[in-house]
Write a structure and sequence with these properties.
single chain, alpha+beta, OB fold (Dihydrolipoamide Acetyltransferase, E2P), Phenylalanyl-tRNA Synthetase, Chain B, domain 3, 6 domains, 6-stranded mixed beta sheet
Length: 806
């Protein structure tokens, strides 16, 4: 937002310099990035009239001008400009003048003819070419005919001015106007705010006989105000209006269009002027656009609309894109005589989406996106027709069409001065808070020790007491709030049990050679087929997204393994011959009667290929036993006890190489080799293994606090045992039997061999166990160990039919 210092003084009495004002605004939250001094380099340039033009005697492309600058005899000036003529009022740089970019003017001779100055273009006066019409941008600056000669050109062109460039926060849409900024300035300087009050002189006609306005989508257009003015004459704007628009960074076009821009900059309400005679049936309809409906916007580009966009239409079709830009077919031209002025409120989010979809951002869309004053639409329309009548003539039709289906009431908020002072850490008297609120145009009533503050609709960013406290802080001055050290009890930050468990899981999985990944929670519905899930599987009941980014991410995942397999597949396509990854995330199960799903934290890991080869250890395949070992190391590292693995059937896993993971009777998850169909679907080489753990169930397992003991003082006794059992007997059952029979003296048991072959009867297998016995208080004797071994053999024989292998 570019704010002209001189223009700002129309609304508030400012007795400080532009830079001092910039500092105050910045400290109040309206940050000023730059203070630009217009015309700072320009000196000794006046207005003059070209009295006579003659051809240069020695150059075809030069002419000799006699220019009256109000200082006696005309000056002779040679120029090569082609857009000047006799009688034109132009800026003249006199001898000794200084222009933009350090250019200085001296008396000189051009092809033998003396020249006592220079006719100036806008660029030579430091004006931006994009803010001037094409003929003026490329030639001498032609001033209006009523400009007096001999005046300081800087004063005529508004170059005795400073422009403050504001860097506004997104919530301060009200500051995208001169009056909005003036309101803050008046509060900061504790002076009066002068807001122009429109005075409209109407004719005897009735607007309802001339035009009709309908709002079909009040959710996107809360209010639409229309006024008609007839018999206007389109032409150039007066110099003061052009100067103010250029200072604000807007190019002057014509008196009518310039007024709509001027009022938008002044009051923050975007306007649009339609050529009344080009509107079919003089009927405005505000509705959603139809699919693939076309409009040629004012920039000459044909744009395709859709039902998500709001269109302003007449009986024949769109004449404007609501809040963004008008249409070319109804634009104001030099031939326009009658106008219909639009002043409306469009939904901010819809305008932003439309602007983004069309790739079209305008001064209007910026203001609508941030929110305008819905209750100011009529006042702004009156201001516009008043200025148009002053500058373009015509008569204003009596009455206003004001479609306002659902009026919006102002908010009233309780503001407690005690709360203000507690939050800010200062002592601001109640009456000063009262004054600050009133200076910002809030209505205030006392209620005992507190204040009832009514927030006007031009401040849609104010929602509650905290916002009002911020307003008090801004106006009081952030620099007036003393610096204090924070106080209060300091506590050491700790992780929650869930955070600590996840932290431990990450460390253990990484120590096992796995890489952590993060994948999207949205998946394609086909993953359920790829994972070999039956049609009646509960995991197929996934929540669908209402607005998916694509079909690839259209449902919330109920299983995590597919996301990891897609990641492995991408790595495999880049010639990664092995891979081991894991993810801690959530899966989502729909809840009947609830809009949001149940979120369940899970851990999943997948691996394929071989482990990394190191100098003293060969690579080995990451198979079922590798992944089972990872699960054991993970659970033991987390302090989980009594871990068991048992055969399990899961449609995504190999029917003979899959195990259910349990601890203390609680099912924790599944580990195994993936089903061949799944491996084929994901185009993985050979075998791939996976595991999944329910972290909710894991968190509920009884994990005792770690206890530490001194190193044992007595030796360990090792014994081996090999038995023959039928093939269907589970090794895990045998381990449990051994532990129970041996009691507390058995410290460790592991299987070191399973054999089936010629020396073992058919239908049987040989299982060999290595056992370690140790007592904490004595050295074990052979008799004690032999007794334990006999108990173990008897228990195995009785419960599994095992025979001691000879």
């Amino acid at each position: 937002m570019r704010v002209s210092y001189q223009w700002l003084k129309d609304y508030v009495d400012i007795q400080i310099s532009p830079r001092e004002l910039a500092d105050k605004l910045t400290l109040s939250g309206l940050a000023v990035d730059v203070v630009e001094e217009l015309g700072a380099e320009i000196e000794n340039v006046v207005t003059g009239r070209i009295e006579k033009i003659e051809r240069h005697p020695n150059a075809d492309k030069l002419v000799v001008c006699q220019v009256d600058v109000g200082q006696g005899e005309p000056l002779q000036i040679v120029t090569g400009a082609t857009n000047v003529g006799e009688g034109h009022i132009i800026p003249v740089a006199l001898e000794g003048a200084k222009l933009a970019k350090g250019l200085q003017i001296k008396r000189s001779k051009l092809r033998g003819v003396e020249s006592r100055g220079m006719l100036c273009s806008g660029q030579e006066l430091g004006m931006e070419s994009k803010l001037m019409s094409s003929d003026m941008a490329n030639g001498i600056l032609i001033l209006p005919e009523d400009v007096t000669i001999g005046l300081d050109a800087k004063e005529v062109l508004g170059l005795y001015d400073s422009v403050l460039e504001l860097d506004l926060t997104p919530n301060r849409g009200d500051a995208l106007s001169m009056i909005g900024v003036a309101r803050d300035v008046a509060a900061l300087l504790n002076t009066e705010l002068k807001i122009p009050v429109p005075k409209v002189e109407e004719n005897q006609e009735n607007i309802n006989d001339l035009a009709k306005i309908e709002i079909e989508d009040p959710d996107l257009c809360r209010r639409y105000v229309g006024r008609v003015i007839k018999g206007i004459k389109v032409g150039a704007s007066p110099i003061w209006l052009q100067n103010r628009l250029r200072a604000a960074g807007v190019r002057p076009i014509s008196n009518v269009v310039d007024v709509t821009n001027y009022v938008m900059l002044e009051m923050g309400q975007p306007l649009h002027a339609f050529d009344y005679d080009k509107l079919a049936n003089h009927h405005i309809i505000v509705r959603r656009a139809k699919e693939n409906e076309k409009i040629v916007s004012l920039d000459g580009v044909e744009r395709t609309l859709n039902p998500e966009m709001l269109a302003i239409t007449d009986a024949s079709g769109p004449v404007a894109v609501a809040g963004v830009m008008g249409g070319l077919d109804s634009e104001v031209t030099d031939a326009t005589v009658n106008l219909l002025i639009e002043s409306a409120y469009f939904h901010p989010i819809n305008v932003r989406r439309t602007s983004k979809a069309l790739g079209l951002r305008s001064e209007s869309s910026v203001r609508f996106e941030k929110g305008i004053d819905v209750n100011g639409c009529r006042r702004v329309a009156d201001r516009a027709v008043q200025l148009i009548q002053q500058l373009a003539g015509g008569s204003i039709v009596a009455g206003t069409i004001d479609q306002f289906p659902n009026p919006i009431a102002e908010k009233t908020i309780l503001l407690r001065p005690s709360r203000v002072n507690w939050v800010l850490g200062v002592e601001i008297p109640k009456q000063e808070i009262f004054r600050i609120m009133e200076s910002l145009q809030f209505r205030v009533q006392e209620q005992g020790d507190d204040l009832l503050v009514t927030v006007p609709t031009f401040r849609p960013d104010i929602f509650g007491e905290w916002d009002l406290i911020e307003e008090v802080a801004r106006m009081h001055g952030f620099n007036q709030i003393p610096e204090t050290l924070p106080f209060g009890a300091s506590t050491q930050g700790v992780r929650t049990p869930e955070q600590q468990m996840n932290w431990d899981i990450r460390n253990i999985m990484i120590s096992c050679g796995f890489y952590e990944v993060v994948t999207y929670s949205f998946v394609h519905p086909r993953v359920f087929d790829l994972m070999n899930l039956p049609q009646d599987s509960k995991f197929r009941n996934a929540m669908k997204l209402q607005n998916p980014l694509s079909e690839e991410q259209s449902v919330m995942r109920t299983v995590l393994v597919p996301s990891l397999l897609e990641a492995l597949q991408k790595n495999l396509n880049r010639r990664a011959q092995s891979g081991a990854i894991f993810e801690i995330s959530r899966v989502f199960y729909p809840q009947e009667g609830q809009p949001l799903p149940e979120e369940v934290p899970v851990l999943a890991a997948v691996a394929y290929g071989n482990t990394q080869k190191i100098w003293n250890q060969p690579a080995r395949p990451m198979d079922f036993f590798f992944m089972k070992g990872v699960v054991e190391q993970l659970l033991e590292g987390l302090g989980v006890q009594n871990i068991t693995f048992s055969r399990h059937q899961d449609p995504s896993f190999h029917p003979g190489r899959c195990a259910k993971i349990e601890a203390n009777g609680q099912i924790l998850g599944v580990v195994g080799e993936l089903h061949p169909n799944v491996i084929e679907n994901y185009e993985l080489p050979g075998r791939a293994v996976a595991m999944k753990l329910d972290l909710q169930a894991l968190a509920q397992t009884n994990r005792p606090v770690k206890q530490y003991h001194g190193l044992p003082k007595f030796p360990i006794v090792e014994r081996d045992l090999a038995v023959l059992v039928q093939q269907e007997v589970l090794a895990a059952d045998m381990l449990a039997i051994i532990q129970k029979a041996a009691g507390s003296l058995l410290q460790e048991t592991e299987i070191f061999d399973i054999y089936q072959g010629s020396q073992v009867p058919e239908g049987y297998k040989s299982v060999a166990f290595a056992m370690k016995f140790q007592a904490p208080d004595r050295t074990l004797t052979d008799e004690e160990i032999n007794d334990k071994m006999q108990r173990i053999i008897k228990s195995l024989t009785a419960q599994t039919g095992a025979e001691l292998r000879k």
